[in-house]
Write a structure and sequence with these properties.
about 260 residues, alpha+beta, eleven-stranded antiparallel sheet, five-stranded mixed sheet
Length: about 260
């Protein structure tokens, strides 16, 4: 039977453990350039996985991560043996990024994509004042808070969870809209939106209460308004060992293990 994956490209974080694993695996398996590979094997932690997904965005190349980092939520266990067999048996998780367009106070538009979340954050000691709309309908005329974020299901166990947002199953057709340290309205804890929703956030008093917009690790400062929507034109593919799919890991998080 023909294999799905015959050519592998290895990438690794700068951590000594990851670099050691890279050297070992390159000595054991043939290594090609990413553009020639059928699959990418990423050695590191979740940060490397996100970097690799961003770097390969638009190619639809599957990425199989092996944990040589700290948390490794998106990664498989590290093992040197039977790599091709593990790749063949792996299950696919397909996610779509968020598309963020942020206009700064000078009217310049900036575009970036996020796999986990788009967040808006106050830049000074003063809380931000934000007007939140969904599909051009104002839902919160004035949110006074440290910020707000929009999370994908894949990112719902990251920053979203740490600020009290809801964990979403990977295949849920939803986005989580979650405030960050909201002061007013005090009882608002966020909303779950259909993943086709278009979210608009306007910064009120942008000159006096500056706010930045962040798509994963890409930040634009002094923004005046931000639009966020899911970009279904881009498929991001991760490979996970059977029984350790991203669906299963997200489910486990909801039960605290």
């Amino acid at each position: 039977m023909a294999r799905r994956f015959n050519h592998i490209a290895f990438v690794a974080s700068a951590a000594p453990d990851a670099q050691g694993a890279l050297k070992t695996l390159q000595g054991r398996y043939a290594n090609v350039a990413p553009e020639e590979a059928d699959a990418i094997v990423a050695l590191g932690g979740d940060g490397l996985m996100l970097q690799s997904l961003h770097r390969l965005m638009g190619t639809a190349k599957p990425i199989y991560g092996m944990n040589k980092g700290t948390v490794g939520f998106l990664m498989n266990d590290y093992r040197e043996e039977d790599l091709f067999e593990r790749l063949e048996a792996a299950e696919r998780s397909v996610v779509h990024p968020l598309l963020m367009v942020a206009w700064d106070v000078h009217g310049v538009a900036h575009t970036a994509r996020a796999i986990n979340e788009v967040s808006m954050l106050r830049q000074t000691y003063q809380a931000g004042k934000l007007r939140v709309s969904v599909d051009s309908h104002v839902r919160i005329p004035e949110l006074i808070a440290d910020g707000i974020l929009v999370s994908t299901p894949a990112g719902s166990t990251a920053y979203n969870l740490s600020v009290g947002g809801t964990i979403l199953p990977l295949n849920a057709p939803l986005l989580a809209l979650t405030p960050i340290s909201a002061f007013r309205p005090r009882r608002w804890r966020g909303a779950l939106l259909p993943d086709y929703a278009k979210i608009q956030v306007e910064v009120l008093e942008a000159e006096n209460r500056p706010v930045s917009a962040v798509a994963d690790h890409t930040e634009f400062r002094n923004v005046s308004h931000v639009h966020v929507s899911m970009d279904r034109s881009v498929d991001l593919v991760m490979l996970h060992d059977p029984g350790h799919s991203l669906d299963e890991r997200i489910l486990r998080e909801q039960f605290g293990y």
